[in-house]
Amino acid sequence: MLPASPLAAAHSMDTTWFAVDATGAIGRFESSEDGAVPNAAATAGLSTEPNFDVWPLRAASYASCLRENGAGHGAPPAADPRALVTEKLPAKPTRVLVMLRDPREDEAQGYRPDHSTTDAEQLIDEAQRWVIFGDHPRVIASRTPVSVEAQRALESHASVAAVIDEDALSDWWWESMSMREAGLFVFGHEYRGEGPGEYKRQLEPNHALSLSQLPIETQRALSALKLPVAFESTPMIHLADHLSDDSCTTWTDGPLRADATAPQPPQPAVEPRTKTPVIIALAVVIAVLIALVRRVTER
């Protein structure tokens, strides 16, 4: 089925869509070519334009990786593929992710242990920044592009451990689905299974991100689809258990669940063939012939 939907025309290739579970954890779902996609879900994929601003989710996911890899205590190891902090910032306004140094490493850097705003954070306008992680090491991000001058000031600030721009996270975002540090539950559709609505959990994060760590507009977008399950304890999700066929887009014409054990329509009854009438008729004919033969012989 292909209902009238902006997604329908582009669903011949992979689509990434998102849902929130009963605990507020975020699930990333990869449809492959023939997986069902709920029409209400926030989507972003290689072959489709995102229907929401993905930057805050990317920034929070990368911040989770940085914290687990010790970027708050200096630059991550050079061998770490997530060490985008070594990339040069572009010479243009851009949105940025900023990680501050852990004051336990160097309390002389002007960082206030009570989580107050530092002078480094003030380089991003208060109305345009949000806090992803408030504890040490503290991580913030900008909602709107930051000027080149502000970027350079952040880079050189003594209390800043890392500054990563929006473009640097684009390619990383597609690699992150295999990273437990990224904070998202990852589910994928497999070609062989109980129809296009079946998704199996492929990755469980070390520490799950929560909706509360994202700007309110991103929370609203992701919360457009809430599933009454806990991703942590649900290895397989079938959309047919929670949504109707009409509320999802599929690449095939079948229903969400392909159930081979479903009852088949009754077949018309066929009367069994029998030889009894033929035998009786033959016996009658033989009896008549015998009677005629006797009459002839008696004469």
Listing every helix as H and every strand as E from the N terminus to the C terminus, the arrangement reads: EEEEHEEEHEHEEHEEH
Relative strand content: 15-25%
Radius of gyration: 33 Å
Q: Structural class of the secondary elements?
A: alpha+beta
Count of strand segments: 12
Helical content, roughly?
10-25%
Number of helices: 5
Summarize the SSE layout with pairings.
Blueprint: E1 16-20, E2 26-30, E3 37-38, E4 42-44, H1 55-68, E5 96-100, E6 129-133, E7 139-142, H2 148-156, E8 160-165, H3 168-175, E9 185-188, E10 198-203, H4 216-222, E11 236-238, E12 248-249, H5 276-298
Parallel strand pairs: 2-9
Antiparallel strand pairs: 1-2, 1-4, 3-12, 5-7, 5-8, 6-7, 9-10, 10-11
Features:
single chain; 299 residues; alpha+beta; 5 helices; 17% strand; disordered N terminus
How does this structure look, described?
There is one protein chain. A hairpin with a 5-residue loop joins strand 1 and strand 2. Mean pLDDT is 79; it is low at 1-12, 72-83 and 260-273. This protein has 299 residues and is an alpha+beta fold. The chain is built from five helices and twelve strands. The protein has helices at residues 55-68, 148-156, 168-175, 216-222, 276-298, and strands at 16-20, 26-30, 37-38, 42-44, 96-100, 129-133, 139-142, 160-165, 185-188, 198-203, 236-238, 248-249. The strands form three sheets. The protein has a six-stranded mixed β-sheet, with no helix packed on it. A four-stranded antiparallel β-sheet has the order 6-7-5-8, sandwiched between helices. The N and C termini lie far apart (86 Å).
